[in-house]
Specification:
The chain folds into 3 domains: 111 residues, Gcn5-related N-acetyltransferase (GNAT) (Aminopeptidase, 3-Layer(aba) Sandwich), CATH 3.40.630.30; 161 residues, 3-Layer(aba) Sandwich (Aminopeptidase), CATH 3.40.630; 80 residues, no CATH class. Helices cover 34% and strands 24% of the residues. Helix 10 runs antiparallel to helix 11. The protein is globular. The two termini are 27 Å apart. It binds coenzyme A (COA). The site of coenzyme A has 18 residues, from strand 4, helix 3 and helix 4.
């Protein structure tokens, strides 16, 4: 047995073969993992793939895509983990667990604070995995009629393709103004956009759209959608058809308008957005427009079956101190060091979690927080003031950066 270790350039396609055998097993699925995730299965960066090999074959694999994350100007380091797989003949021998532990140690030494893992399994829970980051589902209905506005006010919605460098640069500029975003290069974006049409089950229609006001006006918003393809969205299908927004950027009113026009133009009933509870601007606008806004519930959580693992709580608190304030960061650090707050609980406190914290009564979780911080009953007013920045915004797992 050789590994766990990072792959060599010559092993990237072998790793992709294993991922294809495991994840694209059904006959109607092509072996497309390396096309869907070209920035992960990439010969220039074989160190992103951690493997165990036995003789001629890669038998277990974990992919890790490292990028910094910017939360309202604060930078922290994350790695998106995915393509976790073991050859069926080698399962339940602890190989995936072994790779994950070695990789987590390596990434911690490299300064990574949080893992964003695709999937929610005992394997990840045993590493301290937790679901964090509250979302509301907003449904933007299709605009009923094509736009009748005057030409200069008309919106031009165009699909962006990977070879269109100028348009990619416009999208990147919008993305760079987002308050919560990953570090992203033009080449990253080109890779993500090129991967979009390789939808894994043949029924998806994944595209990136850019809207500008007037034919040559400034870019106002972009949106990536994912959903049933055109032929599937035919009148023969009784069920209403919705696309899901994977990522968007730009002025919020413009994002809604782009979504409504796009849905109207493509014969789908609407577009569903997983909107962070922190994005109050977008949520308020959605309510003003009369869109359906569904609060976070178990169904919403099921839509991105991901988990987050805190690798270095002290480092994370240091990175986020400007957002938390010195005093709250200090109290949290003391509680973490004393072992009163474990890494998964810290993520739940900082970024929200489905049960018991942010979705329950604020008074109840403030009492819980006070106890965890080791503060007295009389100090509850102080805890309330200290906790006012919480929960912080966090990255929804289902973005273009996702491996
Ligand atoms: C999931 C998968 C990668 C696991 O690979 P593996 O090499 O068999 O993993 P391990 O032997 O380390 O662990 C197997 C299971 O035993 C559990 N386990 C291992 N050691 C354990 C211990 N000491 N005590 C309790 N449970 C233990 C693990 O938590 C894991 O549970 P899970 O599979 O329900 O998450 C493999 O089954 C696979 O390729 N599945 C198909 C692809 C897939 O679903 N990938 C994950 C996407 S989220």
């Amino acid at each position: 047995m050789d590994g766990p270790r990072s792959a060599r350039a010559s092993e990237v396609m072998e790793a992709a073969d294993l991922a294809n055998r495991v994840f694209r097993l059904a006959a109607h699925l092509g072996p497309t993992m390396h096309l869907e995730f070209p920035r992960l299965f990439c010969k220039e960066h074989p160190e992103q793939l951690w493997i165990v090999r036995e003789g001629e074959r890669v038998v277990s694999l974990v992919g890790a895509f490292r990028r910094d994350l910017y939360l309202q100007g604060c930078k922290t380091s994350t790695a998106a983990l995915g393509a976790v797989c073991t050859d069926p003949a080698y399962r339940s021998q602890g190989l995936a667990g072994l790779i994950l532990r070695s990789l987590a140690l390596h990434l911690t030494q490299q300064g990574v604070r949080v893992l964003i893992i695709s999937g929610d399994r005992p394997l990840y829970r045993r590493m301290g995995g937790v679901r964090s980051g509250l979302v509301h589902w907003v449904t933007v209905p299709a605009s009923p009629t094509p736009t009748l506005a005057a030409a200069e006010d008309r919106w031009w919605v165009e699909e962006v393709r990977p070879e269109q460098t100028e348009r990619l640069a416009e999208v990147l500029r919008l993305y760079e103004q987002e308050p919560v975003r990953f570090e992203r290069s033009l080449e990253d974006l080109r890779g993500f956009v090129g991967a979009l049409p390789h939808g894994f089950d043949g029924t998806r229609y994944r595209r990136l759209w850019l809207a500008r006001q007037g034919r040559s006006g400034p870019a106002r918003a972009y949106l990536t959608t994912d959903g049933p393809s055109w032929p599937a969205a035919s009148p023969a299908v009784d069920e209403p058809i919705y696309w899901q927004a994977r990522e968007w950027g730009g002025d919020r009113a413009a994002v809604w308008r782009l979504a409504a026009e796009l849905a109207g133009g493509h014969g789908v009933n609407g577009i569903r957005f997983p909107v962070s509870s922190i994005d109050r601007d977008l949520l308020n606008q959605a309510r003003r427009h009369g869109f359906t806004v569904a609060a976070t519930d178990s169904t919403a959580w099921a839509s991105w079956g991901g988990t987050f693992v805190g690798l270095n709580p002290q480092g994370l608190l240091g990175d986020l101190q400007p957002l938390l304030g010195e005093e709250l960061a200090g109290h949290l650090l003391t509680a973490v060091t004393a072992g009163r707050i474990t890494p998964p609980v810290l993520l739940a406190i900082l970024f929200g979690q489905e049960a018991g914290w942010w979705t329950g009564s604020r008074a109840a979780w403030l009492a819980q927080l006070r106890e965890l911080l080791g503060m007295r009953e009389e100090e509850r007013g102080r805890v309330e003031t200290l906790a006012s920045p919480l929960p912080l915004p966090w990255m929804w797992g289902n973005t273009l950066n996702y491996v």
